[in-house]
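Researcher: Next entry in the queue.
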Amino acid sequence: MKTRITELFNIEKPIVLPGMSWISVPKLVAAVSNAGGLGILASGPLSAQQARDAIAEIRTLTDKPFGIGITLMMPGAKENAKVALEEQVPVINFSLGKGDWLVKGAKKYGGKVIATVVTEKHALAAQKSGVDALLVTGHEAAAHGGDVTSLCLVPNIVDIVDIPVIAAGGFADSRGLVAALALGADGVAMGSRFATSKESPLHQNVKQTVVEKAVSDTIYSKNFDGLYARVMKTPMAEKVTRKPMNFFVAVIKSFSAARKFNMPLWQLMAGLISQFDKIKLLALFGAATEKLEAATIKGDLDQGVQFIGQSQGVIRDIESVEVIIERIISEANSLSLALSEKVDK
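Model: Structure for this entry, 345 residues:
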């Protein structure tokens, strides 16, 4: 299957693993790339040295193109971005910030840059900055999707930009891929689907819960980590999204999280000071890591909170990345033929 995305990134299939913290680790990134898609490493929880080590590990597991995700507003993001440029990572995917300097740096060695956007304004600004593609995240997505559903957001942005679009939010099977292509996208990102693959480090208890949950079993709220985000509906998630966390409690918890993830406290402080206007948001981000880790790593949904998309309702098994991708492509080809026959009648 060829699209502008497969040609741009020199991959075989227009399917992307987005950078999900604690989930998009080297093993999963390499598995997606080896299966013909594009795996993107999550750098959020990593120090600069850990990011460098992860990049090196990916290169021992695959010789295929891969990427790294950079959330620019987070403490330590610039250091990780510099590592990505130094290591000449083939694809850099940035979000929540201006990535002009990343574009400039990547172009020097022939790297490609994807900007994650949720609005028309940000899409146009990213295109103007010189990015090669957009990852357009709709309302259905896990974590920080936009206000508008993928069904409306994707074609709207496709109509106003000239660069390839990767659709994210609500896509987890062959029907999603075909639908995204029909909307004008050149590929799809399937976070929740790959999070429940065999190679994913997501705790088995959470994977099984995803399979059992319905599309309606999610909560979309800004009270968990300061930005509107979608999480799995559980008693704990309902509790923490009922009202915003107290600011001072959030600051204390963010420092605790920094120690847990071996982030120097000066680095967290530098991030808070340099973005003083967003200090509350950064504190909430940091405080949220405790519960995200409890769910994602430990499988504790009684005390933890799990980012998940509404596509969990169409995820019905836990399979290998290779099987998932091959099944999606095979069924998408068959579905496309069936649709052509319907249109011709």
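Model: Confidence is low (pLDDT under 50) at residues 250-258, 265-269, 271-281.
Researcher: Noted, moving on.
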